Amino acid sequence: MFDPKWIRDQPDLLDRGLRRRGLEAASKRLIALDEKRREVIAKLQTLQERRNAISKEVGVAKKENDEARASRLMAEVATLKADVPKLEQEQRDADAALDKALAEIPNVPFDDVPDGKDANANVERHRFGKPPQFVFEPKLHFELGGVRGLMDFETAAKLSGTRFVVLKGAVARLERALSQFFLDVHTREHGYTEVNPPILVRDEAMFGTAQLPKFAEDQFRTTVDLWLIPTAEVSLTNLVRESIVEEFSLPIRFTACTPCFRAEAGAAGKDTRGMIRQHQFTKVELVSITTPEQSKDEHERMLSSAEAVLKKLDLHYRVMTLCTGDMGFAAGKTYDIEVWLPGENTFREISSCSNCGEFQARRMQARYRPNDGKGTRPVHTLNGSGVAVGRALIAVLENYQQADGSVVVPSVLQPYMGGLKRIEKAI
Fold first, then answer.
1. Is the dihedral of CA 149, 317, 324, 106 positive or negative?
2. 88: annotated active-site residue
3. Which of 212, 302, 308, 417 is the most buried (most CB within 10 A)?
């Protein structure tokens, strides 16, 4: 969300950023709404000042026993007083109109983000490792003999409908092992503080991280007007909402492993087989709260943290810098990590690391006090998957599959699996 003063002072920067996203310029419309709001505020202020001044004159007139003048002045005060509620409502309406318009404007891309309309214009940054070589035709994760029966879509459909799965036995434990492994690496090696946050949040929290109002249809809402989080980014980032933190305490780094819920409203017909796109999935999230001066380096650090767990699993992946037309609503710059899936013979996103600048902070009213103690400034917020556990499970199953349909457990996960080295059959 943008400061109206910034838009008035630098309208070309906003419009340029929106055009880079393939959107129409919006500064004139926003400035007009802001001017209307400021005009109403000025009228209300003038009216109140006039009313206060006349009230003082009434006192003088009464002191001078000029009842006729006092009566005229009191009548004028009554008229002005009657006009106040109308102007106050006009101000509320003007504030609401501007706030609504501002809430619908996405973040502007950083200068070093490549221009483009869609994912075809994303730029590869680097790769790690090589695809595994098989002497047989690799299968999709849900086709593996050692997995069938432990990955139950039919029973899940009876319970909940499509895009759900029931994991059992060694596969369920493997998913848990991945979650614990990711959290251990991020907390022990990367300095993130583990958090167990609520997964039901209020409107204000979803607005703060920009899931609302634009993406309401992609979310699940409960009957008690709380939202199921689509990512722990919502809970973790909002830990600093409506607060002022001290600069010396930054950066603040949080991580959490939570279930996540997405309606996938725009995904009809996409990835209907297997676990690629689910309504409920597990993800380890990384969130950083930092200063504007630190945020660029923090973004690179977060990317490295997410990459580190994939390197330890020896999974082949590539890092993509997303173009302006493929970035999320709140992001100023985004890196996607795409892991290689042999069964599909393609790369699939497993992590998305975004620097949102001060965009979310303004929506959350999250600020920091500089070390010199002079005023406050919006913090910068960053978020990334560290990584998506369900897709990591798929990647392990497909990359470590054997000709007989069994799956070798990566060595770094074996301690979390009670020493189990291979998933061989559905038991």
1. positive
2. no
3. 302
Domain architecture of the chain: domains with CATH = 4-103 (1.10.287.40), 119-423 (3.30.930.10)
pLDDT in the model for residue 425: 66
The torsion region of residue 3 among left (phi > 0), alpha (psi -120 to 50) and beta comes to beta
Element (H, E) at 6: helix 4-9
Residue among 37, 163, 262, 362 flagged as catalytic: 262
Does residue 352 have an active-site annotation?
Answer: yes
349 is known as an active-site residue: yes
Is residue 72 pLDDT above 80, yes or no? no
**Residue 263 burial (CB count, 10 A):** 17
> 299: exposed, middle or buried (C-beta count within 10 Å: 0-12, 13-18, 19+)?
buried
Of how many residues is the chain composed?
Answer: 427
Under DSSP, the state recorded for 401 is B
The catalytic residue among 173, 301, 367, 391 is 391
Catalytic residue among 19, 51, 277, 422: 277
Query: Distances in Å between the alpha carbon of 129 and those of 138, 139, 141, 232?
Result: 18, 20, 21, 29
Query: Residue 389 to residues 66, 224, 284, 351, 395: CA-CA distances in angstroms?
Result: 82, 29, 7, 10, 10
Q: Which of 57, 204, 349, 424 is catalytic?
A: 349
Q: Is 293 a catalytic residue?
A: no
Q: Which amino acid is present at 35? A: E
Which runs of consecutive H residues, i.e. helices, occur in 214-254? 233-237
pLDDT digits (tens, 9 = 90+) for 84-139: 888 889 999 999 999 999 999 999 999 999 999 999 999 999 999 999 999 999 99
Sign of CA dihedral 356, 362, 363, 369: positive
Query: Which among 295, 352, 354, 385 is annotated as catalytic?
Result: 352
